[in-house]
Amino acid sequence: MQGWRCALADVPDPVFAQGMLGAGVAIDPTGDTVHAPCDGTVRALQPTGHAVTIAAAEGAEVLIHVGVDTVALGGRGFTPLVAAGDRVRRGDPLIRFDLDLLVREAPSVITPVLMLDSDLYAVSLLADDDGPVAVGDPLFTLAPKAASTPVAQSTVEGAVVAQELQLPLAHGIHARPAARIRETAVRFSAEITISKGEQVANARSPVALLTLGARLGDTIRVEAHGADAEAAVEAVASLIASGMGEAADPKQATPAPQPVAAAPAPVSTIGADGKLAGVTASAGLAIGHARRLHLAELAVDPIGVGAEEEQARLDQAIRTLAKRLESETVTTSGPRRSILAAHAAMLEDEGLADAARTAIGKGASAGHAWREAIRPQAAALRATGDSHLAERADDMLDLERRVLSLLAGVEDAPIAFPPDTILLAEDLLPSQLMALDPANVVGFCVEKGGPTSHVAILAASMGLPALVATGPALHGIAEGSMLILDADAGSLQTAPDAEMLARAHALVAERRARRAEAQANAAAPCHMAGGERIEVFANLGSRADAEIAVANGAEGCGLLRTEFLFLERETAPSLAEQTAEYQGIADALGGRSLIVRLLDIGGDKPAPYLPIPPEENPALGLRGIRVGFANPQLLEDQIRAILRVQPTGQCRIMIPMIASLDELRRVREVVDRVRAELGLTEPVSVGVMIETPAAAVTADLLASEADFLSVGTNDLTQYALAMDRGNPAVAGAIDGLHPAVLRMIATTCLGAARHDRWTGVCGGLASDPLAVPILIGLGVTELSATAALVPEIKALVASLSMDACRAHAAAALQCRSAAEVRVLAREFRA
């Protein structure tokens, strides 16, 4: 295959990266055809055409697996040129594929080329470094292993142990499940087979398993005989029945691969109007010149000079970085501090240290061992299919680079760019963004990334306009060219004319003037032009955030994200630690109202100490208050810590991910019991977050017992539109101003008003100036925004009349799309 050679560890799938199937290399393809790497027979060709196994005359079996999770394409993009059983010569074409389609629709196109694990041969790589390869270039050689004395097979007299089941795997037995089955089978001495009809495969042979062609709904038989046959069958059958993270409805049938028409053109293109679309990571408007960030991967010598010396070098580099992270954490605040703390926690991970130590013991250098420890973990995060976890892989790669820099003594120099730079990059690591000079870099755009990554959070906290997931079209922008980055609209104008530039400059100047005026008046309570009271609070995640919020005129905290206490650590925070943190934030607010959201964890925010198994769809699984109910002591400890805060009554409790009145009652019972135990006589205010459609349409029922309702527009939007807000593939279509979302907010406000309860908004719409007039017109009386935007939101509210807002909201509810609503909102604002 023509492409770029890289290490098997770079494949974003732990089955390949961790060598479960065997040793070899990977190729990032630039061509469109797989060729036979040797003479042999096509042992197996997957029905979807994405993988082929060649059996060489010498008994070796070589697997070529085009891309990661490409089985899910059902054959689209693949044209097999051979069939199972065909004899092939080295260089013969085997599979042709549509590279553009795979780049758009598969998680990765990196292609493992490996010798399937066996007792016959050892793999010897011909090159350790990455580099270009052409069809016919040698990749690795096979050396016969020394013959070993055969071990007598364990047998058992009597009946064979067997179990039949229907295959629940959505894409049948392909490479990943085959590797998992083999991994389980080798733990037993019994001989284990899996059969489908007349075909029988050794469970220890991934190739044999692939040749079964077993698909969703097929009846398969797991059979074993030997000393531990019963345990072996139970283990293998249970593994398959679990679905291995790929389960589907067994009633569904997987359609046979069908030829498909040519795929549509890539979305990542610069339009005729010169605009390139992206996903907003941080709102704002910037004008500047295109400058690219180029940082070459650090070269690492794979061979060490001695285990003791290499281990000492690695330990010293890790200690040095730990001290730097500690120092940087002390001198910063807000999201930057939280991210640095997360990196420090990752650096202390014993699993990484053990993996590196093992590699050094086998002769690797300190740098190579650290890279080999980090990369499989990062790949495993990406392979989960969860975009939020995949974004955490960037944090691990950031740690890799910082440690390797210390080892090599070639630490990255401060990243300097000329004034008015709009930075363009394939991707950014958190440490790279923190090293930028915000006085010169006025915004950035990256090809990759996601809107919930640490880089996106940092950009928002820095007030730096940013777009992510723009795609490869970013490469087409000339260095030094003039750009207008309108992150509010999710676009980059690549060829602005004089009139466009004049308008953009005028708008930037106008925004600066408004911001200065708003800051000067931020301390006053917020009233509309007609005197109606609208509270403007801030969303917080730490005491430092609270101090910033007060300085910006926030009238309280509408959402304290308590996850900062629970994530990126090995154990749950103690009762005393929680109490101290909440008290510190309450003190920083100076008596202002503090709404504390109960732990919203699970889904995209896992914690290692909570027993939450992997879920096929985490967003619809065990998260929010459901985790509290599953861990009652955790829930009670948090409520107890909140109720200990002085003065009594400053803290209010908010319940996340509510879907029914019964859930509110269960939490209220705990609150009342703990309140009685603490001797508190005054009632405690308990409200609910409206994040699910179920909560929105039953808001009147919830309001009959809740003290307040607060709309989390981020989650409500993704659930209402059935789009994952962390998935760049659909994030561009997600908009909280969609009429469906607005109608749910309207229903919520009406339901709350029936019981004289107030409705707030603590999601992203509360920070969107275009949305604020609509929200107020729908009946929202409290807005909890990003702390830095509080002055602007208060100034905006002060300019609005209630009658105009109500008429505007009524018109918005009649729009047919989010785009129509935004056009209407811009006209209203003008």
Q: Specify Rg, calculated over alpha carbons.
A: 29 Å
Which stretches are poorly predicted, pLDDT < 50 over at least 5 residues? 148-158, 249-267
Percent of residues in beta strands?
15-25%
Give the integer mean of the pLDDT values: 83
Q: Would you write up a description of this structure?
A:
The chain is an alpha/beta fold and about 850 residues long. The protein is about 35% helix and about 20% strand. It is built from 27 helices and 33 strands. Strands 8-4-5-6-10-2-1-12 form an 8-stranded antiparallel β-sheet. Strands 18-25-24-20-21-22-23-19 form an 8-stranded mixed β-sheet. Strand 26 (about 535-540), helix 14 (about 545-550) and strand 27 form a beta-alpha-beta unit. Helix 6 packs antiparallel against helix 7 (about 335-345), helix 6 (about 305-330) packs across helix 10 (about 385-410) and helix 26 (about 800-815) runs antiparallel to helix 27. The longest helix has 24 residues, at about 305-330. The chain starts with a strand and ends with a helix.
Describe this protein with a few key phrases:
single chain; 830 residues; alpha/beta; 8-stranded antiparallel sheet; 8-stranded mixed sheet; 27 helices
Q: What can be said about this structure in brief?
A:
The protein is an alpha/beta fold. It has 27 helices and 33 strands.
Give the topology:
Blueprint: E1 3-7, H1 14-17, E2 22-29, E3 33-35, E4 40-45, E5 51-55, E6 61-65, E7 78-80, E8 87-88, E9 93-97, H2 99-105, E10 111-116, E11 121-125, E12 131-133, E13 140-144, E14 161-166, H3 175-185, E15 191-196, E16 199-202, H4 206-211, E17 219-225, H5 229-241, E18 275-277, E19 279-282, E20 285-292, H6 307-330, H7 334-347, H8 350-361, H9 366-383, H10 387-408, E21 421-425, H11 430-434, E22 441-446, H12 454-462, E23 466-468, E24 482-486, E25 491-493, H13 498-520, E26 535-540, H14 543-551, E27 556-561, H15 575-588, E28 593-597, H16 625-630, H17 632-643, E29 651-655, H18 661-677, E30 686-690, H19 693-697, H20 699-703, E31 708-711, H21 713-721, H22 728-731, H23 739-753, E32 758-761, H24 772-778, E33 782-786, H25 790-798, H26 802-813, H27 818-829
Parallel strand pairs: 20-21, 21-22, 22-23, 26-27, 26-33, 27-28, 28-29, 29-30, 30-31, 31-32, 32-33
Antiparallel strand pairs: 1-2, 1-12, 2-10, 3-9, 4-5, 4-8, 5-6, 6-10, 7-9, 11-13, 14-17, 15-16, 15-17, 18-25, 19-23, 20-24, 24-25
